[in-house]
Amino acid sequence: MKRFFADLHVHIGRTKTLRPVKITGSKNLTLTNILQTAKDQKGIDIVGVIDCHSPEVIEEIEDLIAQGKLTNAYGNLLFEGKTTLICGSELELYDANCNGPIHVLSYFPHLQSMKAFSRWLLPRLKNIHLSSQRVYATGRELQREVNRLGGLFVPAHVFTPFKSLFGKGVDKQLAQVFDPELIDAIELGLSSDTNMADHLRQLHRYPFLSNSDAHSLSKIGREYQSFLLQKGSFSEIALALKGKDGRKILANYGLDPRLGKYYRTVCNTCLSPIEKNGECFRCGSKKVIKGVSERIRELSDATKFPNRPPYIYQVPLEFIPGIGPKRLSKLLERFRTEMDVIHHASFDQLKEVVPLEIASAITKARNGDLSLEAGGGGRYGRLVDQGTGDR
């Protein structure tokens, strides 16, 4: 058994023919670039690519298999002998049982089941080539099909103000939309953590995932988890989510929720913080974007909390003041991957490569000692501590 780092929510920006998949995704966010970046730069062992229902993405997977870059190892696809590809799909639900669009993630055990799911989706999507499209099926119908194909079903970024289960989709209970028995995990999203989410008693039965929702190569591994597995495979992850046979989630790694884009409630007009009276002190507007922290307070009904893996705050290197492309390149040349820099490089080792204040900021971030200013309304929080650099 060994530790595997996994980011299970990464988008495709473009196919190899440059056809858009995730419209807001970077043009260089191709399947090959994702796998190469995860392997060589990020140090992510398992990548969930959640636009694999797109026919051109499936074609690219098959091309990589034909080229020998993707090999079938223990039932899963292994890129260049190291990084596991998990095939998945993100879809949008909007049916009579929910108040607004809800994003959900589905993962499949192999390419054959992914192709079968793509065929099932074809008459139920307006454009199967695009990511995060509205599926013309109910939540329970979708769950049953994923379950029939041996897949895993996960509501995505469940607290964000837009397109999420609790931010938009339901008043209080997930059972309004889903069969609770056919949910395999809950994805938290950038503006929440384990302690916040466990204030909802209905979530206590599910494991929590922390993923990047990457729309660019640099965002891969922004949030992730570590699993204790025998090998990097879909079947091992399925066991870990159930805590079976010694497999388990070791830890969730993510932003301090205050660094997320939707942590606090802000004015919808000027993005100023809204505190108590619901009116913007700056422009007088009463239209707000409700923050995740406030939404969780509204739904809170738990006083006792389950034992869970630790949620470890970590700050991506691109958030550290003074780390631009040149310094990042130097760090990777010395320490190989971002995971090694974030988790393992000592202060003494870091200061041999970067200025003292940057080495200090990296170690402070690792220990949770940096001061933060909370984000909201689609704008990230930021580190208050300042450094110098080449950004």
SSE sequence, one letter per element: EHEHEEEEHHEHEHEEHEEEHEHHHHEE
Average of pLDDT: 92
* Share of helical residues: 25-40%
The number of helices is 12
β-strand number = 16
Largest sheet: 10 strands, mixed
Shape: globular
Ranges where pLDDT stays below 50 over 5 or more residues in a row are: 386-391
Strand content: 15-25%
Show the helix and strand layout.
Elements: E1 2-10, H1 31-42, E2 46-49, H2 55-67, E3 70-73, E4 76-79, E5 83-93, E6 102-108, H3 111-121, H4 139-148, E7 152-155, H5 165-169, E8 186-187, H6 194-197, E9 208-209, E10 224-229, H7 234-242, E11 248-254, E12 266-267, E13 288-289, H8 292-299, E14 311-313, H9 325-335, H10 338-343, H11 347-350, H12 356-367, E15 372-373, E16 382-383
Parallel strand pairs: 1-2, 2-5, 8-9, 11-14
Antiparallel strand pairs: 1-10, 3-4, 4-5, 5-6, 6-7, 10-11, 12-13, 15-16
